[in-house]
Amino acid sequence: MTRPAVARKRFGQHFLHDPQVIARIISAIDPRTGEALVEIGPGRGALTVPLLERCGALTAIEIDRDLARNLAERFGSALKLIVADVLDVDFSALRAAGPPLRVVGNLPYNISTPLLFHLLTQRTAIRDMHFMLQREVVERMVAAPGSKIYGRLTVMLAPWVRIESVLDVGPGAFRPAPKVASTVVRITPLHEAAFPIGAPERFEQVVRAAFSQRRKTLRNALKGVVDADRLRQLGIDPALRPERLAPEQFALIARSSAG
Fold first, then answer.
1. 93-129: pLDDT as tens digits
2. Which of 125, 130, 128 is nearest to 100 (CA)?
3. Is domain 200-257 classified as CATH 1.10.260.40?
4. CATH 3.40.50.150 boundaries in the chain
């Protein structure tokens, strides 16, 4: 027997219920039969139902065992359920030899940034992503250099994905209503980096170090990673704070200081 789903604070659950918002999300995704759809955190099935109506089959990743049990009872074999923490899921293995994944989800706000970084490492397995995110996170993703919200997330996404805002969603579209506004975003991995970055590991090291303490200048933040003289040779003022640099400049630093 299906049990009533209760939002659990530890999982950051806010269940989408507004039918107009749901319809607009499905229209933006435009799922088709034969595509490899993966839903993260299906919850009560608000998106699961229309996705299955359009595609006939779906993989869903749900950490809440009670919700997973309810979903299994409702949808049976049409829904392939993975009961796990999505941060532990190998999306490349999930794709296997099949078509690239189309990943969808109303993401818990408490894992959205770690999950974006997790998916970034497996972007070659993914065709596109449609996520409901806290609006503040989306603003950080697309922030311009010099902005107070420009940071590591912005720079790390810049070479690898194209980001489009699809739909703003108010708190009333959820139960329980969150205290923040949300935005549906479309994230499309690029086949090639938007600009040369050299070794991805070095790029990540430079970006991580630069933003580890935002108030530090580049000279201090990158101490032990690249010296001030090298920055000057690249035409970059070591006295600048990291939020003043464009993503391409971080890539220049990484390429020129590798090894």
1. 999 999 999 999 988 878 899 999 999 999 999 999 9
2. 125
3. no
4. 9-189
Angle of helix 48-55 versus helix 65-75 axis, rounded to 10: 40
Q: Which residues contact 251 (CB under 8 A, 6 or more apart)?
A: 159, 195, 196, 197, 198, 203
The model's pTM is: 0.88
Distance from C-alpha of 111 to C-alpha of 109, rounded to nearest angstrom: 6
| Span(s) in the chain for CATH 1.10.8.100 | 200-257
Distances (CA, A) of 49 to 62, 105, 119: 15, 13, 24
Architecture of domain 9-189: 3-Layer(aba) Sandwich (3.40)
